[in-house]
Design brief:
This protein is an alpha/beta fold and 720 residues long. Helix content is 28%, strand content 20%. The strands form 7 sheets. The chain has an 8-stranded parallel sheet with strand order 11-8-7-6-5-4-1-12. Helix 17 links the parallel strand 16 and strand 17. Helix 5 runs antiparallel to helix 14, helix 10 crosses helix 11 and helix 14 packs parallel to helix 19. The protein is globular. About 1% of the residues have low confidence. The structure holds beta-D-glucopyranose. Beta-D-glucopyranose binds next to loops.
């Protein structure tokens, strides 16, 4: 539909119809009959108040979507199609690794491909818009939603978020495989005090501008259609009612003219948060902060029309908001095809799933991080007896918390993956104990020890259950739940040829098990082909190459923990395991993570030969090209993720001791040398100064190749 026709449509709509565009209901709450659509029971709104709505959340199949769309569109004078939304976070039917894992591939092309595949499946399933990417800046693994994020570096998050936007949207939203996207949760949701979900975040403007806001902006610049304010109070005001965040930064500074949708029931929760007196007040606060769609609270449905009649909200505000919603529908081509490629034929999605399994395996392989290897890995493919032990040995629940329409019966378990790879070996699978929080039952550990003693090698699969991370899944301690630490101690004691394979959605405190584990492979929640990927990685058919997108703490007491810390006036200068009085350190724990951001081993070794900046003096605003030369000095082909970090040595505000500035991937055969050329954008040299400006200050910068806290080659350059 042309822009003028859209405007004509808006002009022809009644106030109630326009407000209807701003109302979203949960599919489950819509009690459907052939004759009418009535409201969620909890709200008990009248059928009249429920008559108009613009979008629907969470439904289970294309069938449901097609039925409701047809019914709704045949009803009114203005048959405006409904917009169907869902959280397609890391797959729709095929599960790809969780976003935190995918970010660790340091491979935006791979992330884009996974998003594209998820998009095709979801579009066939009837989805029009996904609540992805989630690019909350995270520093605290107690918060269970770190699994949905792209980790602790805003530059990496921005790149991975933008790749997701591109993958889902494609080149043209009217394409039947494309989904519109909603970036979330703006802003500071990843910094809840105490790591407890929904809790308040207190962040200075400086910290917000430097760390918390850039990734959302990067996703909007990549074309995100919608943005979701976060639940939490940020500096005292819940985001959906925060004029600084929503009006000043988002609309005035960033010129975002797309749609804003509240988070689930967030308007009603303004009352509980003590910001709104009642539902009408909540509706007015949110509307005045440019919130276009009210997700399921019903505050707009019940109270907005009256607020307009009473002069609290202008009809112009409603027109602007309704037009934004109509525009997303029009961009998707819903006025021409309200089903947008939805297919009620289950085979359509089934066929896509078959096509996407290879990609799911590749993503699981490239997202895995080899944390430690004392030489036991890779295991020899000629082994006769393998013991696969642990609560995740035969589990299909390794797909992650947000895999919406996933069929876990399609997941390959670790035991199955190994059986398929080594058809002649004898594979024994035992659980040993459960992974449940608080489970004290260690009675099955003896059986696990016996299996380990009788095997040539042991694959010990431990971690956190799928339901342990994700929304509302905060933990006060981040160690292995239940009796798993004991299981690791006993099994590694029984057979030193053991690889500990970790599953879960957050960095864990591994200090206790690290000390006894010969090898540690972090698989995160790897998705549908998780077991295949584990088998291939452990037995050397695939090479590990992923890196950590989030630091692993030595102790929960270090949290929040992040690599891009600022220097203090008294930095610690003694070895990590020593204590230095009157310096910034702990008496009972080191300062550094157990495993740092950017860490990840391969099955080979790389020597960094040269770090060559193209210039040593730059004008402010110029990018810096840097060449890194390296050699594979090991015996196997391997892939290295070359990372560059910078440090602004003297500046008007305290800057981080290291900040990721560029990265690239290179594969080299044994003995082979190669070069990568990276560009450090001048954007990476900016800082947010005391006067509230983003500037590049002249002076010397240090640049190093390596990973966080592990510089291998260092140079300097000067900005004039
Ligand atoms: C979550 C959002 C999600 C929404 C819709 C909320 O509870 O915070 O991330 O998009 O539900 O499912």
């Amino acid at each position: 539909m042309k822009a003028e026709a859209l405007k004509e449509l808006l002009d022809s709509m009644s106030l109630a119809e326009k407000i209807g565009q701003l109302v979203q209901w949960n599919y489950a709450a819509l009690a459907m009959t052939d004759a009418e659509v009535t409201g969620p029971e909890t709200l008990r709104l009248s059928a009249d108040a429920m008559k108009y709505f613009g979008s629907v959340l969470n439904f289970s199949s294309a069938d449901e979507m097609i039925r409701l769309q047809k019914q709704y569109m045949s009803g009114g004078e203005h048959p405006v199609p409904l917009l169907f939304m869902m959280d397609v976070i890391h797959g729709y039917r095929t599960a790809f690794p969780i976003p935190l894992a995918q970010a660790g591939s340091f491979d935006p092309d791979l992330v884009r491909e996974c998003a594209k595949a998820a998009s095709a499946e979801a579009a066939a399933g009837g989805v029009h818009l996904t609540f992805t990417p989630m690019v909350d800046h995270v520093r605290d693994p107690r918060w269970g939603r770190v699994m949905e994020s792209c980790g602790e570096d805003p530059y990496l998050s921005g790149i991975m978020g933008a790749a997701q936007v591109e993958g889902f949207r494609g080149k043209d939203l009217t394409d039947k495989n494309a989904l519109a996207v909603c970036v979330k949760h703006y802003a500071g949701y990843g910094a809840p005090e105490g790591g407890r979900d929904y809790n308040q975040a207190e962040l200075s403007e400086h910290v917000l501008r430097e760390w918390y806001l850039p990734a959302y902006k990067a996703c909007l610049d990549a074309g995100a259609d919608m943005i979701m304010p976060s639940f939490n109070a940020l500096n005292g005001i819940p985001s959906v009612a925060n004029p600084w965040l929503m009006n000043q930064v988002l609309r005035d500074e960033w010129h975002f003219n797309g749609t804003v949708i509240s988070d689930y029931n967030a308007l009603d929760e303004l009352i509980t948060q003590g910001i709104a007196e009642n539902r009408r007040h909540a509706a007015v606060l949110a509307m005045n902060c440019g919130c276009d769609i009210d997700m399921v609270s019903g505050c707009y449905a019940s109270d907005l029309e009256k607020a307009v009649r009473d002069g609290l909200i202008s009809e112009e505000q409603i027109n602007t908001a309704a037009m934004r919603v109509l525009k997303v529908k029009n961009d998707l081509g819903l006025f021409e095809d309200p089903f947008h490629g939805a297919s009620a034929d289950p085979e359509t999605v089934g066929n896509l799933v078959r096509q996407h399994r290879t990609l799911a395996e590749k993503a699981a392989v490239e997202s895995a991080v080899l944390l430690k290897n004392n030489g036991v890995l890779p295991f020899a493919g000629s082994v006769k007896k393998v013991a696969v032990i642990g609560p995740f040995a035969s589990s299909r629940e390794i797909v992650g918390a947000w895999c919406c329409n996933c069929d876990t019966s399609e997941t390959v378990t670790v035991a199955e993956g190994i059986r398929a790879l080594l058809p002649d070996a004898e594979i024994t699978a035992v659980s040993g104990c459960s992974a449940r929080i608080g489970d004290k039952d260690g009675s099955m550990i003896n059986e696990a020890v016996r299996a380990a003693e009788n095997a040539d090698c042991v694959v010990l699969c431990v971690g956190e259950e799928m339901e342990c991370s994700g929304e509302g899944r905060s933990r006060a301690s981040v160690t292995l739940p239940g009796m798993q630490a004991e299981l690791v101690r006993r099994v590694t004691g029984a057979n030193p040829v053991t690889a500990v394979v970790l599953f879960g959605g957050r960095p864990l405190d591994l200090t206790e098990i690290d000390a006894v584990s010969p090898a540690l492979l972090e698989m995160w929640m790897p998705g549908t082909e998780g077991g295949t990927a584990v088998a291939k990685l452990l037995f050397g058919v695939a090479e590990p190459c992923g890196r950590l997108a989030m630091s692993f703490p030595k102790s929960v007491g270090q949290l929040p923990l992040f690599y891009a810390r600022s220097n203090t006036g008294r930095p610690k200068q003694v070895p990590e395991d020593e204590y230095q009085p009157y310096c910034s350190n702990y008496m009972d724990c080191g300062n550094l993570p157990l495993y740092s951001f950017g860490h990840g081993l391969t099955y080979t070794e790389f020597r960094y030969d040269e770090l060559r900046p193209e210039k040593t003096v730059l004008r402010a605003g110029e990018d810096l090209n840097v060449t890194v030369r390296l050699t594979n000095t090991g015996k196997r082909t391997g892939t290295e993720i070359v990372q560059l970090y910078i440090n602004d040595k003297v500046s008007s505000v305290v800057t981080p001791v290291q900040k990721l500035a560029a990265f690239a991937k290179i594969s080299l055969a044994p003995g082979e040398s190669g070069e990568v050329r990276l560009t450090v954008s001048s954007e990476r040299m900016r800082l947010w100064n005391f006067s509230g400006q983003s500037v590049i200050e002249p002076g010397e910068f240090e640049i190093f190749a390596g990973y966080a806290d592990h510089p291998l080659l260092t140079r300097t350059f000067t900005v004039i």
